[in-house]
Design goal:
The chain is of the alpha/beta class. The protein has helices spanning about 5-10, 25-35, 45-55, 105-115, 140-155, 165-175, 190-200, 210-225, 240-255, 275-285, 300-315, 345-360, 375-380, 385-395, 415-425, 440-445, and strands spanning about 65, 75, 95-100, 120, 125, 130-135, 155-160, 180-185, 205, 230, 265, 290-295, 325-330, 340-345, 365-370, 405-410, 430. The chain contains 16 helices and 17 strands. Strands 10-9-8-7-6-3-12-11 form an 8-stranded parallel sheet. Strands 13-15-14-16-17 form a 5-stranded mixed sheet, with helices on both faces. Helix 5 packs parallel to helix 6 (about 165-175), helix 12 (about 345-360) crosses helix 16 (about 440-445) and helix 14 (about 385-395) packs across helix 15 (about 415-425). The radius of gyration is 27 Å and the shape is globular.
Length: about 450
């Protein structure tokens, strides 16, 4: 059971050193109790107190690390029901199924095609992380060989899927250096699966027929000293899956139910007969608390929208994505190329720069820091005023690179044109199009 702020305070050093970022130990204790602070922020807490405070400082949904290497990821660790309350931290893991009886050549081709599914967006590399290897026919040698190939020849991390302990042991032995998730422990095999997970320090997923049936299974693993647990309530119908996902999240966050305080795994691949429908279900589960979502395949037309949805949901809503202020050279501009200016909101930058690049017209793009606001919002908030834009152009260094003295401002900021001209005597201020889609035609006309 979680400790209260006063109980936590009694275990703190009471130095009021302020090194944790708040004025007093009591304030820090209250923040710790409400999940607004991390225990590691206190440099003087004793080891004994740290052990007692572990439960109070832990998030209600345990974070579970999956895999190793460049695609190592963490699921769980969430503290709120709604992202506007704080933020969601650990993005839903995306997995696709490979059967253990797949031919070697087909496996090689599939991994190669899946690995190519990587997308650059707002300066980030978006890609799936996991392969779910499904045991077909109980052939432990085939299962182990396929697991070994995936682990050694791809960047993907593994979910090993079998209820046969001998098959699972073979798969673990072949791929344990990748720290796979072993799925799934049931009431009938939980002792064996728990022992295997503990022996190899691996995360383990439990599967039950309902949410209520999960609690004895997670309790059993916890008693065995296993903490890295993923849970599957067994629902394979869309409505029930959504209901279970919400019930588990609320029970952990609002009800303080530690037995359900673990990330979930869901299988849209077992809820639909085609990838399009799987994608819709996966989108629902990414939005509503899925820790890991398993599809039957990765296809660009399905994966890309899911990656974008995941990016948007797991971005801090209080901190807009931004790009660095400065000068961006697009299509190899020279000293006579046009100069455009806009804000540093990441979406604005990528839309505008994308349209400029598509036009094939050389251009200098000046990005001004507007605290991550879009043009119209930044102008309304006084973050993109004429004086500020003019001063930014002077300080940016663009005058050392060009002979051109024409500045193109966004159409939605037309009102600042006069102030910019006053700040930049000798420059001609041109009001550009309001919509980014009109930029190519505008540049070609110039």
């Amino acid at each position: 059971m979680a400790l209260t702020g006063i109980q936590i305070f009694k275990l703190l050093p009471k130095t009021n050193c302020k090194e944790c970022g708040v004025p007093t130990c009591l304030a820090f204790a209250m923040n710790l109790a409400s999940g607004k602070a991390e225990l590691d922020s206190c440099p003087y807490v004793s080891d004994e107190a740290r052990e007692k405070l572990a439960e109070a400082s832990a998030p209600p949904i345990r974070p579970v690390a999956l895999g190793s290497g460049v695609r190592k990821s963490t699921v769980g660790g969430e503290t709120v029901l709604y992202r506007h309350e704080k933020t969601f931290y650990n993005p839903t893991g995306l997995a696709a199924v490979i059967n253990s009886d797949i031919a070697a050549a087909d496996l090689e081709n599939k991994l190669k095609s899946w690995n190519a599914l990587q997308y650059e967006r707002v300066g980030l590399n978006l890609r799936p992380e996991l392969v779910a290897l499904k045991d077909i026919g109980g052939d432990k040698n085939a299962f182990a060989q396929t697991a070994k190939t995936i682990a050694e020849t791809s960047e993907f991390n593994l979910i090993l899927m079998s209820e046969d302990i001998d098959v699972m042991k073979a798969g673990v032995e072949a791929s344990k250096f990748k720290r796979p998730l072993i799925y799934g422990a049931t009431a009938g095999n939980i002792d064996d699966f728990g022992a295997l997970a503990k022996e190899n320090n691996l995360p383990v997923a439990v599967k039950a027929d309902s949410v209520g049936d999960l609690e004895p299974l997670t309790g059993k693993l916890t008693e065995m000293g296993i903490k890295d647990i993923v849970i599957d309530p067994g629902s394979r119908e869309i409505k029930q899956s959504l209901e279970d996902s919400v019930v588990i999240r609320r029970a952990a966050l609002k009800g303080g139910n530690r037995a359900l305080g673990f990330p979930t795994i869901a299988f849209p691949c077992e809820m639909a007969s085609n990838l399009d429908m799987e994608t819709l279900i996966a989108g629902m589960l990414i939005a509503k608390y899925g820790g890991i979502v398993v599809l039957s395949d990765f296809k660009g037309e399905s994966l890309f929208p899911l990656l974008l949805e995941r990016l948007n949901i797991f971005t801090d809503p209080q901190r807009p994505m931004t790009v660095t202020e400065g000068i961006y050279e697009l299509n190899n501009p020279d000293e006579n190329s046009p100069i455009m200016v806009t804000t540093n909101f990441a979406l604005t930058y990528f839309i505008v720069s994308g349209e400029i690049e598509a036009s094939k017209e050389p251009c200098w793009l000046l990005i001004k820091d507007a605290e991550g606001l879009s043009v119209l919002t930044a102008w309304a908030a006084g973050k993109f005023s004429g004086d500020d834009v003019g001063m930014f152009v002077k300080k940016s260094g663009i005058m050392d690179k060009v002979k051109n003295t024409e500045l193109i401002i966004p159409g939605y900021a037309a009102a600042i044109a006069g102030d910019v001209e006053e700040e930049l005597p000798g420059w001609k201020i041109i009001v550009g199009p309001r919509e980014a889609a009109h930029i190519p035609a505008f540049l070609k006309s110039k």
